[in-house]
Amino acid sequence: PTPLASPPSVKRIRESTFAMARHPSRLLLLVVGLLAITPFCHACTNFLVTKGASADGSTHITYAADSHVLYGALYHYPAADHPPGTMRDVFDWDTGKYLGQIPEAEHTYNVVGNMNEHALSIAETTYGGVEELSHQTGALIDYGSLIYITLQRAKTAREAIHLMGDLTSTYGYASVGESFSIGDPNEVWVVDFIGKGEGVKGAVWVARRVPDGYVSAHANQARIQTFPRDDPDNCLYAPDVVDFARSKGLYPHESPEDQFSFSDVYDPVTFLGARACESRAWAFFRDAGAEGMDDYLEYVKGHDLTKRMPLWVRPSHKLTVNDTMNYMRNHFEDTWLDFRSDVGAQAFNMPYRWRPLEWKVGTKSYANERSTGTQQTGWCFVAQMRSWLPAPIGGLLWFGVDDTASTVFAPMYCGMKRVPDTHAETSGDMMTFSFDSAFWVFNMVTNFAYSRYNLVHPEVATAIAQHETKYFTETESMDRHAAEVFAKDPDMALDMVTAYSVSTGEQLTKEWLEFWKYLFTKYMDGNVKVKNPDPKERNPVVTWPGYPSEWLTRIVEETGDHYEIPAAKKKHLAAAHAGAPDRKLKLVLKGL
Fold it and tell me: What is the DSSP letter of 54?
């Protein structure tokens, strides 16, 4: 989603001296943009997996919808027929602002979350891009509406790409630069997309098909650079993508067209574009075992912006859907960017940093790491598209709410007729708490785990694995039975998968609430309590893990003798604790 908070220097205005050196004419545009920019921060992450790169021949697209104001819900747009002349109201997905009306299609497809009944999926990450192009007065289609309107009207990835171009050229594009992931059961595509700004309706864009056997990723940084002009099977683009840049002074007229780089022109990479955005793509490529990724460490550190990463890489192994889920939980573990051990991680190695992302000490600016797993995720998914099953069954949206590292991806079939009440948009909102809402229940568990991460989160991870393992087994059986029924009675098959997905989501929410009760009871007040094995004992067994030795050392280094117990008093306390006859003293010590 479009981000809402962080200083302008994060992303939308590019301070890259590398980019300025290549295209000096852009400098004036960017300086002027500083005067009018709205706040921006890094949000959303997408991974893409082709058929040949997956263990079972399915395609995968992932999405972490990261926003501090996005309520986690599973959207549903039922299939419908519309009389001629029907108009559709369009509202900005982020703000709810009414944008206008467009003619409705004669028939619209069933859409569950970000996947339709044909197992077509679309995800996005916002990169912003050149500020001059960020606003288009009178435009009727924002990026969110573009996704869901397209899903209701297109059957394949290629059809979706063309439709998105047509919709924005006809009705205008009301958003900043976006990267889209578009996939069907056979192909996955990366699309970099940006509006034309004031006075010119529409957008310019380039779409690249990820070669079979490869994986790709993007995370709030445009990644398509140069691209072929004569390969429509693998590359599609707006016909004026280069000429428009020249007309705006973004690309010199004398520069060769075949050297035109979409990213360098419309969204040149900066320190934070590399460090807070490209780093997430790098982490995925590294997790997937792609060769040579350590060669790009200086790039993702933001220290060498000339050494761009490839748009796609070949993984060392075939990825299961469980692999893809787990890669979405990454916090740069065991890399140079690992941030679990400095003071910001607090005493319990928490791989999260509260916003803002950027901060200052004196005159110097700093930025925390931004990993794929992050606290402000509203909802997330791994879209798995299987070509060997009927599309309404072959499309499986593994859907979760809240932080990817602490969610359970639950199976939602794309042909289902309704969604779980616990996950529906009507289950709550960002300012109304409900125990019946999956979003709120998962946030209860996750936020409690943040308080003592290395103690509590391992139990969360175990519970996640148990649930997802169960779902893998269940969906294997459901796939088989539903496909058999679908051949004879498609509607009955859709009833089957609907009942399964709805009950799964609702039961998961109930179980996760019980899980929170268990965790809270066990870990409250800094203790760890377990049931006493002796049935005669009323009280539980309590232990006090305390703080790690490294943290205690840090306290002493920072406070000196402030907390020190003088040697004589230390001996007295030790003796009292060992068996002093004073009952009152014993009780005091027990309560300490």
Answer: B
Find the length of the chain: 592
102-116, 470-484, 517-531, 562-576, range with the lowest pLDDT: 562-576
Question: Exposure pattern of 349-382 as b/e (b: 16+ CB <10 Å)?
Answer: bbbbbeeebbeeeeeeeebbbbbbbbbbbbbbbb
DSSP count for the chain of H helices, then E strands = 17, 23
Note the pTM of the prediction, 2 decimals.
0.91
Enumerate the β-bridge partners of residue 237.
206
Higher pLDDT, 31 or 426: 426
* Nearby residues of 364 by Cβ (< 8 Å), 6 or more positions away: none
The DSSP H or E segment spanning 529 is strand 528-530
- Structural tokens at position 35: 């005067």
Beta carbons of 376 and 3 less than 8 angstroms apart? no
List, for residues 135-185, the tens digit of each pLDDT value.
999 999 999 999 999 999 999 999 999 999 999 999 999 999 999 999 999
Helix (H, G, I), strand (E, B) or coil at 227: coil
Cα–Cα nearest to 139, from 110, 168, 162: 168
pLDDT for res 13: 32
**Per-residue pLDDT reduced to its tens digit, 236-263:** 999 999 999 999 999 999 999 999 999 9
Report whether 64 contacts 57 (CB < 8 A): no
Quick one: 75 exposed, middle or buried, by C-beta within 10 A (0-12, 13-18, 19+)?
A: middle
- pLDDT of 308: 97
Distance separating the N- and C-terminal Cα atoms of the chain: 48
Average pLDDT over residues 325-347: 97
Helix (H) or strand (E) holding 237: strand 235-237
CB 27 within 8 A of CB 127: no
Asked if 228 and 235 touch (Cβ cutoff 8 Å), the reply is: yes
The 3-class secondary structure across 462-505, one letter per residue, is HHHHHHHHHHHHHHHHHHHHHHHHHHHCHHHHHHHHHHHHHHHH
User: Cβ of 506: how many Cβ atoms within 10 Å?
Assistant: 18
Determine the residue type at 336: W
What's the rounded mean pLDDT across residues 302-329?
98
With a CB cutoff of 8 Å and minimum separation 6, the contacts of 462 are none
The span from the CA of 591 to the CA of 579, in Å, is 16
String of DSSP letters for 533-582: SSTT--SPEEE-----HHHHHHHHHHHTTTTPPPHHHHHHHHHHHHH-S-
Is the bond preceding 356 in cis, omega lying within 30 degrees of 0? yes
- CA atoms lying within 13 Å on the CB side of residue 32: 9
Write out pLDDT tens, residues 504-546.
Answer: 999 999 999 999 999 999 999 999 999 999 999 999 999 999 9
CA angle in degrees (0–180, nearest 5) for 156-162-165: 140
Phi, psi for residue 133 in degrees, rounded to 5: -100, 10
